[in-house]
Design goal:
Layout lengths: L1 H16 L10 H25 L15 H5 L17 H25 L3 H219 L8 H15 L1
């Protein structure tokens, strides 16, 4: 990059150098000096070209401005066409030497003819412009390299993320494959199970229907037997009812006759019972009167016994109370020494004296 910047600076100085007017080479001295310098440079370049020994045929036209697309389109080795490139390829060196020889030769011819150096000036300007394009291209290439590095890192991150996503997706796919296989196997067994279950269910329903049909047939047969039995029973019952009706009519006649006979007998018995009842009623009235008299007598006797008993009880109570009072009074008199239980005076004094002596 330093060499490229130095080359751009030199090209700028050359533009300033060759920006003078055409009168700059008007003097013969300067014209001769320029011719001598150019001839010496051309001789040195011829010698250098002979040393390189390149056999490539180059164009004899002076350099003109060529865009980057025209220079590099279809070129594999860009170092051969770059102006400021450093390479060990001698073909590019020979090409550059030939270019300088052509420019200097045309400049020498122009100075001899018209005393100007427009060819040299235009060639330097063209080379400077191409150099600027190459510098800008290198700067763009550096920026693009950084962008490429960033994009490469981003691409690598995305690639790793995509790899992880692919691995996760493959794991999910594998898991889903196993699940699908399980579902397929489960569905196959489920289908087999349902087919067998349907066969069993149909067979079971067929058996149930046959059982119901047989049950209905048995019921129909049983009902037919019951109807036949019912008809037979009805016939027998009707005959029995007819016979029973006749028997009941005979019994009714018998009981009606017996009722009449018993009614007459009961009426006679009722008359007899009424007569006996009147007699019993009279006896009952007499008995009631006698019972009333006896009851009054018994009541008087009980009242007499009660009064007599109360009197005896009162007399006994009075005797008991008198005896109790007498006993109490005797006890009091005995304790108090009253009445007949009083102590005699003479006997009492002698005893007191004896008691006094004894105490001394």
């Amino acid at each position: 990059m330093d060499e490229e910047e130095e080359f751009v600076e030199r090209a700028t100085n050359h533009e300033l150098l060759f920006s003078y007017t055409e009168d700059a080479c008007a003097t013969k001295l300067l014209k001769r000096i320029m011719k001598c310098i150019l001839c010496e440079c051309i001789d040195q370049l011829f010698i250098l070209r002979c040393i390189t020994g390149s056999s490539i045929v180059h164009s004899d036209d002076p350099p003109s401005y060529v865009s980057l697309d025209e220079r590099y389109t279809g070129t594999e080795d860009h170092a051969e066409t770059r102006i400021s490139s450093v390479t060990s390829n001698y073909d590019k060196l020979a090409k550059d030497i030939h270019l300088i020889i052509v420019v200097l030769s045309d400049t020498k011819s122009e100075i001899n003819m018209v005393d100007t150096f427009k060819v040299l000036q235009e060639s330097c300007v063209a080379l400077a412009r191409m150099q600027e394009d190459e510098v800008q291209l290198m700067l763009d290439a550096s920026a693009n390299e950084k962008a490429v590095v960033e994009l490469t890192n981003l691409l690598e991150e995305e690639r790793l993320a995509n790899i992880r996503t692919i691995e996760e997706t493959q794991a999910k796919i594998q898991k889903l494959r196993f699940e699908v296989e399980d579902i397929v196997v489960y569905g196959r067994y489920e289908k087999t199970y349902f087919e067998r279950w349907e066969l069993s269910r149909n067979e079971q329903n067929r058996m149930i229907c046959n059982d119901k049909e047989n049950s209905y047939k048995n019921t129909i047969k049983q009902m037919e037997d019951n109807i036949e039995l019912e008809n037979r029973c009805h016939m027998e019952l009707m005959s029995y009812v007819a016979e029973s009706k006749n028997d009941y009519m005979e019994e009714i006649q018998y009981w009606m006759k017996r009722y009449d006979d018993e009614l007459d007998s009961r009426e006679n018995d009722l008359i007899t019972i009424k007569a006996n009842l009147e007699k019993i009623t009279e006896d009952l009235e007499k008995t009631r009167n006698l019972y009333a008299e006896r009851t009054a007598a018994i009541a008087d006797w009980l009242e007499y016994k009660r009064i007599k008993k109360e009197k005896e009880d009162r007399e006994a109570l009075e005797i008991w109370a008198a005896t109790k009072i007498q006993a109490w009074w005797r006890g009091v008199m005995f304790r108090k020494k009253l009445g007949p239980y009083r102590k005699k005076k003479g006997k009492g004094k002698g005893k007191d004296k004896k008691k006094g002596k004894g105490k001394k």
